[in-house]
Design brief:
Distance between the termini of chain B: 34 Å
Bound molecules: iron/sulfur cluster
Strand order of the largest sheet of chain B: 3-2-4-5
CATH class of chain B: Alpha Beta
Radius of gyration of chain B: 19 Å
CATH topology of chain B: Rossmann fold
Number of strands of chain B: 8
Largest sheet of chain B: 4 strands, parallel
CATH class of chain A: Alpha Beta
Number of domains of chain B: 1
Shape of chain A: globular
Oligomer: heterodimer
Radius of gyration of chain A: 18 Å
Number of strands of chain A: 8
Number of helices of chain B: 10
Structural class of chain A: alpha/beta
Helix content of chain B: 25-40%
Strand order of the largest sheet of chain A: 1-2-3-4-5-6-7-8
């Protein structure tokens, strides 16, 4: 059983982190800095898959390196770049390298990234990818063919956006994802405890663990960018104004304070946190200390 | 010619599950040319449904269902029967089903799977698009095509990129899944989303050799293809 699964099943407040593979083969920043800052404070680490449709080292390779170091990776798989043969092959490949946790995503469209002229695949999507994971876990591939050696310990996960409008559609899709086999959810970033609470009031009836998504806001500029360009994310003015007023040196401290306040409020509502530090991994231990986590 | 083939009878019954009756709207264009529509099919369907516990409230054959204005102007004469109906079964390509869906306020159900719109011959003057996916989903999606209205052709619901009703790909483009959501909510059919099969079958997009050969206008068949063949046979004789 994966450590992530164990933690969730034991009902522990579970914290996961996230790193993005680099573009190019220099792993220093990713492994020696990002990973090393968070590795002792999280149960598992997500590795993004060509995040924002920007080509990088494959998620699978970085996950394998993490597993080799005895760390617990969560392999993110998007459906943008590979069809069902490629994806199923990768899932089995990941399994033999010790990877158990897999997060199923549809994936941003190619036009958002650095290869906008590439062919979008979307043979599968987040839901049918979960169907594939469940099928493989049960010993058959999507074509119904029997597997020789069954990856039965796979833990399929999925994402949900609590701040999306219409949120009803998110909840319907969440239910469809659970039926397809999702065993845990990590959420898109959310900053308003009230919005999260009303989402959890509806989502908790599914009885599947939800890890609240935390993207550390580094500056007022970043907050504004997220409000304008990241769907389903709304950073409230009560967070933007203090960051704007803080001096440059004080900003990380202020930001950590604000995030800690938010975490304290949402902690009783959910089963854990998914922290996306986006370059501020070094502040994660401090943030968790303040929250007694 | 837009190539379409009749959906299997079981699938029609499945899609119409929960509806007591339906009105049939049929296209007098391409489906006539590829033997998947026209009055012949309407007669077959009108006989088939009552045998399976469903009433057919009436029917109309309209030339070119892809022309919304024409569809609207003809349906006006059938308002009484439409008001009594719970659904509209549309015998046409995917475009005709979508166009009809925009003209009525009850659910539309496709009677055909569309395989190809290459070599298009209908009017297709408006915004609806059909990519010939071969597994018409319109019965589930409120008459709005998920394949052509969603930039990723998703069949399992909205992705995380929807923003203010627009698609992540283009700020001005409506998110197809938001349109589908709004429509299904309006007609009280959000539960449909849970009925869509998770996987697409891409083989269905392929137009088999047989379909290629039956895809000509009846007229063309006789005048251009059959006539010269007959005369050359005669010459040989
Ligand atoms: S779902 Fe869309 S692409 Fe597929 S047959 Fe229907 S209208 Fe055409
Ligand atoms: S935003 Fe809407 S239309 Fe665009 S890819 Fe996502 S679901 Fe499809």
């Amino acid at each position: 059983m994966s450590r992530l699964q164990e933690s969730l099943e034991q009902g522990k407040f579970t914290i996961t982190g996230e790193v993005g593979p680099p573009k190019g083969v220099d792993l220093h920043h990713c492994m020696d800095e990002e990973v090393s800052y968070i590795k002792d404070r999280v149960v598992a680490i997500n590795v993004t898959d060509n995040q924002s449709s920007v080509m990088r080292i494959s998620s699978l390779s970085i996950c394998a390196l993490l597993a080799q170091q005895g760390l617990e990776p969560i392999l993110q798989i998007t459906c943008r770049d590979r069809n069902r043969l490629g994806i199923q092959g990768d899932i089995l490949g990941a399994y033999v390298l010790g990877i158990r946790n897999i997060l199923a995503l549809t994936g941003d469209h190619n036009t958002a990234g650095d290869h906008p002229d590439s062919k979008p695949v979307y043979d599968l999507d987040s839901v049918s990818l979960l169907t594939a994971l469940t099928s493989l876990k049960n010993g058959k591939d999507l074509a119904g063919e029997e597997l020789n050696g069954i990856p039965e310990d796979i833990i399929p996960g999925a994402i949900v956006t609590p701040g999306a409008d219409p949120v009803e559609m998110q909840l319907i899709k969440m239910e469809i994802k659970i039926e397809a086999g999702a065993r845990f959810f990590q959420t898109q970033a959310i900053y308003d405890p009230k919005v999260f609470e009303s989402f959890m009031n509806k989502a908790s009836r599914y009885k599947v663990p939800v890890l609240c998504g935390i993207v550390i806001i580094k500056s007022a500029g970043m907050a504004k960018y997220m409000n304008n360009f990241v769907p389903g994310v709304q950073v409230p003015d009560t967070m933007i104004t203090p960051l704007k007023e803080a001096s440059k040196e004080d900003r990380p401290k202020k930001s950590i304070e604000l995030m800690a306040e938010f975490i304290k409020e949402v902690k009783p509502m959910c089963q854990g946190l998914h922290i996306m530090a986006m370059g501020w991994e070094r502040y994660v231990p401090e943030l968790l200390d303040i929250c007694d986590l | 010619m837009v190539v379409s083939v009749p959906k299997p009878a079981e699938e029609l019954l499945e899609m119409l599950d929960g509806y007591k009756n339906m009105f049939i709207v049929a296209c007098g264009g391409c489906p006539v040319g590829c033997d998947s529509g026209g009055m012949k099919r309407v007669d077959e369907l009108t006989e088939f449904f009552p045998q399976n516990g469903k009433e057919v409230t009436g029917n109309v054959l309209i030339d070119f269902l892809c022309n919304k204005a024409l569809v609207g102007s003809k349906l006006i004469y059938h308002l009484k029967k439409l008001k009594k109906s719970q659904a509209v079964l549309v015998v046409s390509c995917g475009i005709g089903v979508q166009a009809t869906g925009k003209m009525v306020d009850i659910p539309v159900v496709p009677a055909n799977d569309t395989l190809s719109s290459q070599g298009m011959q209908g009017l297709w003057p408006s915004s609806e698009r059909c990519a010939g996916c071969g597994t018409c989903y319109l019965a589930f999606t409120g008459g709005i095509c998920p394949i052509t209205s969603c930039s990723k052709s998703l069949i399992n619901g909205m992705c995380g990129g929807q923003h203010d009703g627009k698609c992540e790909v283009e700020t001005e483009r409506d998110c197809g899944w938001n349109l589908i959501y709004l429509r299904l909510k309006e007609v009280g059919k959000l539960d449909n989303l849970k009925k869509i099969p998770h996987l697409r079958d891409f083989r269905k997009m392929d137009v088999s050799d047989k379909e290629r050969h039956t895809t000509r206008w009846a007229l063309e068949k006789e005048v251009i293809y059959e006539a010269p063949k007959q005369s050359s046979e005669k010459e040989e004789a």
